[in-house]
Write a structure and sequence with these properties.
The protein has 11 helices and 6 strands. The chain is α+β, with helices and mostly antiparallel strands. The structure holds guanosine-5'-diphosphate and magnesium ion. The site of magnesium ion has 4 residues, from strand 1. It is an enzyme of class 2 (transferase).
Amino acid sequence: MANSKFEYVRLFEQPDQLLPNTWVVVRIDGRGFTKFATKYAFEKPNDKRALELMNAAARAVMTELPDITIAYGVSDEYSFVFHKSCTLFERRASKLVSTIVSTFTGYYVHLWSAHFPDSPLSPPLPSFDGRAVCYPSIQNLRDYMSWRQVDCHINNLYNTTFWALIQLGGMGHTEAEQLLKGTYAADKNEILFSRFSINYNNEPEMYKKGSVVFRDYELVEPGTHDVAKEVEDMVEPVQQSKTQHENDKKRRAKARILVEHLDIIKDDFWDRRPWLLSGKPGKIPKEP
Ligand SMILES: Nc1nc2c(ncn2[C@@H]2O[C@H](COP(=O)(O)OP(=O)(O)O)[C@@H](O)[C@H]2O)c(=O)[nH]1
Ligand SMILES: [Mg+2]
C-alpha cells in the first residue's frame, strides 16, 4: 500500500523504553484525594471501606495482568511490580503506566458502589496518576518496597496520634500539630497509651502495615531456596519452551490472589515465597 503524505508524522513518536533486565515498578496515586476523601466523608485517619476498595481494584489489576508479581498499597497509592523477565515484549513506559492506571481506575469506579452503597459517585470522578521506575537489583526492589512500608508506618503512627488528640482529646488542629512537633515514635506511643489507653500495637494490621497483594502458592521453609542469587545471576531471561510458558501461565491464572497485611521489610516474607522473585509459579495449595 502506498504511503500517504501524512505518514511522516510517525517520526514524531519518540521511544520511551524502560531499561531491560530490570524490575519495573508502576506506582499510581489518587489525584486530589484530600478533597475526594472530604467529599465522600472518608473516616479519619483510616477509612476501612476506601482502603478495601483500593485493595479490590489492585486485586482486579493483578488478575488481568499476570506479569505483575506483587503489589503494595497504602492510603491512595498502589505500587505494582513487574518481574524483570516479564517485560521483554512491552517495555514502553507510557504503555505500561497507562494500562495500569486505566485498568485500576476502571475497577475503582466499577467497585465503588459495593464499598460505598450509600454514597453514589458523581463528577469530578476519581482519577489516578502513575509513573514507572526501573530497579536494577533485587536489593533495590526490596528497598523500594521497604521504603513504602516504612512510610506507611510513620504516617499512620502520626495520623493515629493526631486524630486521637482531636477526636478523643478535643484539641484543635494547630494545637495537636504543635504538640506532635519534634516527637519520636516512642513519644507518640506514650501519648496514645497514657492519654487514650490506646495500644498502637493493637491497631488494625491493614492500617499499620498497608496491603500486599500476591498469588497464593504453598509456602516453603525459609533457607531452602536461594532465589535471589539465581535471579541476579540471570544475564538474560531463560528461553522457555512454549509448553512450559503455557503451563506457567495456567498455574498463575489458577492461583488465588491474596490481599494481606504483612511485614515485607524482613527477609522472612520473601524467603517463604520464592515465586515472588523467581517468577516461577509455585505449587497450588490443596483445598483445606
Ligand atoms: N480521611 C481519609 N483520607 C484519606 C484516606 N486515605 C487517603 N486519604 C487522603 O488522601 C490523601 C493522600 O495524600 P496525597 O496523595 O499526598 O494527597 P492528594 O494530592 O490530595 O491526593 C491524604 O492526605 C488524605 O487526605 C483515608 O483512609 N481516610
Ligand atoms: Mg494522592
